[in-house]
Design goal:
By secondary structure, the protein is of the alpha+beta class. The chain has three helices and five strands, in the order ββαβαββα. The radius of gyration is 12 Å and the shape is globular.
Length: about 100
């Protein structure tokens, strides 16, 4: 298994936020913008930009949280998952 390299966006540490996204997805962009606008530190990976081997590993990790493998998928503190753009749930998770 290859280690995934998530891009880091600096901000306030409100927990561990990991975003699985596609570079062409409008809802993924909205999720990234919301997290940035709220000043939250987070990590993201664009699955469509990964090499094939890394993409397969990323999909396996994503499938553990979201069996449908839809985007965006936001993992919070390795305990909670928000699928799709849901501003209210994201704001609640940030606290």
């Amino acid at each position: 298994m290859v280690e995934l390299k998530f891009e880091h966006i600096a901000g306030k540490n409100k927990g561990k936020f990991k975003l699985f996204a596609l570079s062409t997805c409008g809802w993924c962009k909205k999720t990234k913008h919301l997290l940035s606008d709220l000043g939250v530190e987070y990590y993201y990976v664009f699955l469509d930009a990964l090499e094939e081997e890394r993409k397969i590993d990323a999909l396996k990790e994503l499938e553990r949280w979201n069996p449908r493998c839809s985007f965006p998928t936001l993992i919070i503190n390795d305990k909670r998952c928000i699928v799709g753009f849901n501003e209210q749930k994201i704001r609640e998770a940030i606290g």
